[in-house]
Design brief:
Radius of gyration: 16 Å
Number of strands: 2
Distance between the termini: 47 Å
Structural class: mainly alpha
Shape: globular
Order of helices and strands: HHEHHHEHH
Oligomer: single chain
Largest sheet: 2 strands, parallel
Helix content: 40-55%
Strand order of the largest sheet: 1-2
């Protein structure tokens, strides 16, 4: 893997579409997430914060490289103990294809934490 090169990588996006992308989407498109040497210090680390994973049932990222098996086998949950997985109908751009469903999933997930805070 090569070194990270600083380039204006957001040229492919119009400012109108920018709000629909997460920081991770944008970083991945720049190649920073693909520089495995930068990630080496975290090899084997567990993610200890609560995580909501929303994937599309027709997303090539879910269907490829054993990702679906990784999710369904419990291996994903072994490194992300507080993981909640939801797979909904759609492809890679769920935030655009299924905006209402994705928003509903995210809001219901976040509400759990405000409810826990209020009861504490």
């Amino acid at each position: 893997m090569g070194d990270v090169i600083s380039v204006p990588c957001f040229l492919f996006l119009s400012y109108k579409l920018l709000p629909y992308y997460t920081v991770c989407d944008l970083v991945a498109r720049c190649g920073n997430c693909r520089n495995w040497r930068l990630l080496a210090p975290w090899n084997g680390a567990k993610i200890t914060v609560p995580v909501k994973f929303i994937g599309g049932d027709k997303d090539i990222g879910v269907q490829s490289f054993g990702t679906e098996k990784y999710i369904n086998s419990g291996a994903f949950k072994s490194i992300v103990p507080d993981l909640e997985v939801t797979v909904i109908e759609g492809h890679h751009f769920l935030q655009q294809e299924q905006a209402e469903r994705v928003n509903s999933e995210m809001i219901s997930y976040l509400v759990k934490f405000t409810s826990q805070e209020a009861s504490s």
